[in-house]
Amino acid sequence: MHASTIHDLVDGTVVAAVMPLTDLAHRPVAGRDAVALVDEHEVFADPPTVLHRIAAVRERGFAVAVRIAESASRATVVLALVEPEVVVVPAEALVASDLRAATTLLSLRAHCERTNSVVLAEGVDSDLHREAALAHGIDFGCGTALHVAEGEAGPSSPRGGLFREPTWSAPLDDATAAPFRILSAGRERVRSGKGLLVSMSADLEARAGEAGPDTIALGTFQHHDHFTGAARRRWLSMADTLAHVAVFAVGFGTSTSGPDLVPIEPHDPLVDEWNVILLGESFACALSALDLHRRTAGGEREFEYVVSYDREAVARAARATLSRPRPVPLEVPPSS
């Protein structure tokens, strides 16, 4: 996709341009006249690459836009992970009397009210689209019905441009941040043996199926040989019903079905953690435990753990987990 001109739907003036994330990731000079666009499906297709590119363009001063798929069920989860300054919705969905579209549009209001993010209607190709967008409280759009002549694409809206109020997004954690550090900040840490954590994890994993199909579930198992038995069966079952399921551990190979099995480096701080992270449209919870590498009086492995239902903290923990760098596959030398 090439750059698209963003118009003010009321006075028709040009306020900015939206450009692909990959284009702006290498652009040296930032400005409020350009917004980096990423598709919803891209976030889960290659989480570490996309999330790192988003962080890079933000460091250069660009705002980030997420295009919400008309038929997707994980829109609010992607918004929680990316915290975009601009949300792009299809104009066609604004004129449809469709329950799913209406539910998605209503759920966007919570994000926009909390962050002051801007909603952009894409594909405003008729007056009907424009009127429908305005009726939904949307002030900006892209489309053929808003076409301007070449050379008139400078931001010039007398109403104040694309961002009329400061937008807010969650603080960016550094690249080495792991869930336990994020979730334990300001929260009580409790020490426990492995047995209690197994029961708590099983309870959370059972709740995942009740949280709705839009939910993402992330688990970290330290080493691949811990991902066995009943826990493995639960995560395989979750992969059939939830929007995105990924399990992280040292020693995983590639997976062709079931949850995304993600290998991590042996020196990654995540290796010392046991995490179950659930993030859905109306439910967010994380259990995060740090391996103390010692035994309890009863001989169990001992951990220090926290549990949080704070949606912002859970989303940050999920983002930190999905952003983990993947080991570079070893090249197999050709046989002689």
Automatic annotation (TrEMBL):
InterPro entries noted in UniProt: DICT_dom, EAL_sf
Domain (DICT): residue spans on this chain: 193-289
Short name of one Pfam family: DICT
Gene3D superfamilies: EAL domain
Domain of life assignment: Bacteria
Protein name from the UniProt record: DICT domain-containing protein
Species of the source: Rhodococcus pyridinivorans AK37
Lineage of origin: Bacteria, Bacillati, Actinomycetota, Actinomycetes, Mycobacteriales
